[in-house]
Amino acid sequence: MQYITAFRQGDAGRHLVRQIARWGAQLADAGRTVFLMEVCGSHTMAISRYGIRGLLPRQIRLLSGPGCPVCVTDAGYIDAAIQLAEQGAILATFGDMMRVPGTDFSLADARSRGADVRVCYAPYDAMAIARDHPEREVVFLGIGFETTMAPVVALVREIERQSVPNLSVLTAFKLVPPALHALLGDPEVRIDAFLCPAHVSAIIGALAYRPIVAQYGVPCVVCGFEPLDILLGIEQAAAMLCAGKPELVNSYSRVVRPQGNVAAQALLDAFLEPTDATWRGLGTIAQSGMRLRNAFAHFDAAVRFDLRETPGTPDPACRCGDVLKGKIAPADCPLFGGACTPLHPVGPCMVSAEGSCAAHHRYGTAEELGP
Amino acid sequence: MCLAIPMKIVSMLPGGRGVVSCDDNSADNSADDAGGTTCEVDLSLTPGVQPGDYVIVHAGLAIETLDREEADARLALFAAWGAAQRAESGESGGSEESGESRESGEPDT
Questions:
Q1: Domain covering A75-176+260-304 assigned CATH 3.40.50.11740 in the classification
Q2: Which of A139, A159, A206, A349 is deepest in the core (most CB within 10 A)?
Q3: pTM (2 decimals)?
């Protein structure tokens, strides 16, 4: 397909790799090594899949950030969802959520014990489940960053429009910019530039990162998920770091507008308001989440069923928090590949296919060595 | 999680919805080839779109339109770099453009 595979041409990639190598040589002459964080899980997956780390000079390192909303979903949220299923509700969820560990069980475990958990491609699919089971409560597990908030809130709008009585949403929405601020405010984390998420940016707009550049002097490049997009994003970030001129670059202008999708923002604003949110591995970040406004509280499963979410207690040996912050590489975790594998994940980074640990486990760690 | 793919609008449906196609084998840009997988999506957040337009679809919702001019301009740039790369490595590839001149950065926000 023209607008997918055309962004995977090898020769243009080789050209970009040579450009990046030139910046690497310049950094080596100056005795510098720079750390670029790709914030988004889809970037993490593409970087591993195409072996991009192995193409970079040692002076340019990629860190995988907390950009997978499945990975950062707190165990307490899974526990609350399972509690609803035990009370007889049908759970409708994105497939990635099935193996996320709760305190004792995952949704997959719960299903094998008799819970009614159904996987949807789109939130809208939950409408049909609710229609087919008018005698039962159906709860859609509404997790996600700005990108996924849009289809979940579109579902809430549809529930309201069609007055569906037995469908509600258990939300765990998270916002990307507050997490970037939290990472940059952590003295133990070193980030020299961000590769900003592609489709979160489609919603919020490229200008959303301007305060990051202004406040921290950290270059931000919004780039797409195809390998040439990513290589160009790395090249542009390296160029700015070498020149000492941090800027905001929108390198995904075929999709991302400076102001974002205004219609989507209006929809989100009509239904949601900011709230504090717990990120697995990062802890609670002020005003980094979104919840349904009071006027729509009757669509909120936590309100409808009077749920009390208590934060989960992760395995103390799991280093996902440090992986999510880019402090350690997945292979540095003592559980990686042994006690923690994609089939039996301990931490969230191994659960979702887009988690840093799952991506490294699947595509190998040889690329870590670099040229 | 935030994966979304460009799909071409085949037809509009009532209620702000539409049918889109992932035209895997389509080399041209004509609006009427609906080969490949089709599915129904919510087009309410991309007002003004018409059949033939490309939208970025995530979890059953079009989250943005694809700007064909921007996409084609970027592809032309990549094609030129690819040609330059082939020329330098001594292959006689069908390069429509040569010349390696480029600016780094491109602050096109």
A1: yes
A2: A349
A3: 0.90
CB atoms within 10 A of CB A237: 30
Q: Measuring CA to CA, which residue among A118, A107, A99, A119 is closest to residue A79? A: A107
Element (H, E) at B6: strand B5-13
Average pLDDT value over all residues in chain B? 79
- For the stretch B33-51, pLDDT in tens is 545 789 999 999 999 999 9
A307-321 burial: b if 16+ Cβ within 10 Å, else e: bebeebebeeebbbb
Residues in chain B within 8 Å Cβ distance of A40: 2
Tokens 């490949």 identify what position? B36
Q: Phi and psi dihedrals of A273, rounded to 5? A: -135, 155
Q: Which two tokens stand for residue A302?
A: 């936590």
B107 and A247 in contact by Cβ < 8 A? yes
> Closest Cα of chain B to A320: distance in Å?
18
The helix, strand and coil proportions of chain A, stated in percent and rounded to the nearest 5, come to 45, 20, 35
**Sequence spans of domains, chain A:** 75-176+260-304
Contact A3 B1 (CB under 8 A): no
Q: Is residue A80 helix, strand or coil?
A: helix
What are A360's two structure tokens?
Answer: 């490294």
Facing B1 at nearest CB: one of A122, A125, A352: A352
The domain that contains B42 carries what CATH number? 2.30.30.140
User: What is the value of ipTM here, to two decimals?
Assistant: 0.91
How would you class A121 by CB atoms within 10 Å of its CB: exposed for 0-12, middle for 13-18, buried for 19 or more? exposed
Q: Which of A103, A127, A125, A142 is nearest to A302 (CA)?
A: A142
